[in-house]
Amino acid sequence: MQRAEFGRLGLEFEIAVRIKSGVPVTAMPFTTETIAPHIGGVCAAIEIVDDCSADYANLDVLSLVADNSWNAGIVLSEFATTWPDLGGVLGRATKDGVAIGEGHGRDILGHPFNSVAWLATQLASRGKGLKAGEVVMTGSVMKTIFPEGDASYRFDLEQIGSVEVRIGSAQ
User: Fold this and answer.
1) Which CATH number belongs to the domain containing residue 62 in this structure?
2) In 5, 52, 81, 155, which residue has its Cα 20 to 30 A from 26's Cα atom?
3) How many separate domains does the chain show?
4) How many CA atoms lie within 13 A of 111 on its CB side?
5) Collapsed DSSP state (helix, strand, coil) of residue 97
6) pLDDT: is 62 or 122 the higher one?
């Protein structure tokens, strides 16, 4: 991918999940335990973000929503259909093979499935539900990085998989 295609390119190192079965619309809030049976796969993911060189001092939540929270794409590893307790899973990010950060699944709202439960609850409050096959990005295990030079980035998610992205200059 070319850095020049973005206002301000950022990378977030995440755990993504794939919904196995439709999540019912219910008045009861979802929890990690009640959403888990609807998840059919987990994977390592890098979310490509573009914050459009935002002025954070003058930014409001409506601007975030209108811009889809800067999502510019995702890169996913193969989905694992069995996985260890995600709270304890370690994710490590490297730049050209050199460590740049790490974090655990618990760094995502206590457990990555909490993000999915929150989303399912919010959708249900609007009469909608998550559908089979949809992919949900649960959040980053570490601080977003903003690449400035050409480099390869890799995210290894312990016992689950790895994903890579190469950032280059415009030709």
Assistant:
1) 3.90.850.10
2) 81
3) 1
4) 14
5) coil
6) 122
